[in-house]
From TrEMBL:
Role of this protein: Acts on leucine, isoleucine and valine.
Residue numbers carrying N6-(pyridoxal phosphate)lysine: 166
Keywords from the named record: Amino-acid biosynthesis, Aminotransferase, Branched-chain amino acid biosynthesis, Pyridoxal phosphate, Transferase
A Pfam family reported for this protein in Swiss-Prot or TrEMBL: Aminotran_4
Top-level taxonomy: Bacteria, Pseudomonadati, Pseudomonadota, Gammaproteobacteria, Oceanospirillales
Superkingdom of the organism of origin: Bacteria
Protein name: Branched-chain-amino-acid aminotransferase
Pathway it works in: Amino-acid biosynthesis; L-valine biosynthesis; L-valine from pyruvate: step 4/4; Amino-acid biosynthesis; L-leucine biosynthesis; L-leucine from 3-methyl-2-oxobutanoate: step 4/4; Amino-acid biosynthesis; L-isoleucine biosynthesis; L-isoleucine from 2-oxobutanoate: step 4/4
Family note: Belongs to the class-IV pyridoxal-phosphate-dependent aminotransferase family.
Gene source species: Halomonas chromatireducens
Cofactor: pyridoxal 5'-phosphate
Length: 327
């Protein structure tokens, strides 16, 4: 689909995958006026194909669009684009061989400023696309706990910035920290707040949860420096369903360190569409490792993960009305 200042959205079409033609002066290549989404299509046992809470992604895409001064897309166009692509390409949605087979079709909607214009202002010509790729489980090790690097030189987001928007620029800014993580054998980076370097925000592309020994489960309260994950929101609801007490509040790096040492914190996990729910085994920092004293087997993370996957793959009743049929 294409948007122009004069005409609005038009030119809805599905066409074969292939390279784009962009003018070298296209604004996105210079000023990063770009946003994206990530959502999956799941094949159910009866062969039908479903997606999970797409109206949440549509709403977030509009939030991101407003922050990046891009035009907003309606629910109808956003969800309609997924349906239009799947009507054509549904055979690319893999069929799980068992409940342990977390295959899906990953969908990547994105919007770019395509106007050729080197001046600095919101583009008057914008393109929207959605591409897809079959995907297996995100982490090769399955539900094995992962090691996370704590970034102490870089922040992902700052107050008043673009942290809450899903934009390529945030990811570009996180790559130097990602490189540090790799050098320390960590797959992901945890970021602290930019003002005090004290409050836990999230990973480069996943939200964080902490499980306490008394059944409380906490995630950092949303601010404009945290990306509101659809998985995060779903975990809060599923945790309540499971009789846990979810909390959204500030969590400091000291609370993590002390809670891990004392056994007060029994599990830490990361969550997002790509990796679902993944236990965090240790936090690697410049001052040493933070490991859970309990050496947890992560029962809560595993239970929530199974609940979420059973819903997404149609193995459990959709009591929250979270599924939308695509094909
Ligand atoms: C996409 C993303 C998440 C996870 O969001 P989901 O909707 O759960 O996939 C978390 N943090 C960041 C920075 C993200 O870009």
């Amino acid at each position: 689909m294409r948007w122009t200042l004069d005409t609005g959205w038009h030119g809805r079409e599905v066409r074969p995958y292939g390279p784009l033609t962009l003018d070298p002066a296209a604004a996105v290549l210079h000023y990063a006026q770009e946003i994206f989404e990530g959502i999956k299509a799941y094949r159910h046992a009866d062969g039908s194909v479903w997606t999970f809470r797409p109206e949440k992604n549509a709403e977030r895409f509009r939030r991101s669009a407003r922050r990046l001064a891009l035009p907003e897309l309606s629910d109808e166009d956003f969800i309609g684009s997924l349906k239009a692509l799947l009507a054509q390409d549904h055979t690319w949605v893999p069929t799980p061989k068992s409940a342990a087979d977390e295959c899906s079709l990953y969908l990547r909607p994105f919007m770019i400023a395509s106007e050729k214009f080197l001046g600095v202002r919101p583009a008057h010509e914008v393109d929207y696309y959605v591409i897809a790729s079959p995907a297996a489980a995100y982490f090769k090790g399955g539900v094995e706990p992962v090691s996370i690097w704590l970034s102490s030189h870089y922040n992902r987001a700052a107050p008043g910035g673009t942290g809450f928007a899903k934009c390529g620029g945030n990811y570009a800014a996180s790559l130097a920290a990602q490189k540090e993580a790799s050098a320390h054998d960590c797959g992901q980076v945890a970021f602290l707040d930019a003002r005090e370097n004290k409050w836990i925000e999230e990973l480069g592309g996943m939200n964080l949860f902490f499980v306490f020994k008394d059944g409380r489960i906490a995630t950092p309260r949303l601010t404009d420096t945290i990306l509101e994950g659809v998985t995060r929101d779903s975990v809060l609801t599923l945790a309540r369903d499971e009789g846990l007490s979810p909390e959204e509040r500030p969590i400091s790096i000291d609370e993590w360190r002390e809670g891990a040492a004392s056994g007060e914190i029994t599990e830490v996990f990361a969550c997002g569409t790509a990796a679902v729910i993944t236990p965090v085994g240790e936090l690697v920092t410049e001052e040493g490792h933070i490991r859970l004293a309990a050496g947890s087997d992560n029962p809560i993370a595993k239970r929530l993960r199974t609940k979420l996957l059973d819903l997404q793959y149609g193995r459990a009743e959709d009591t929250h009305g979270w599924l939308t049929k695509l094909v």
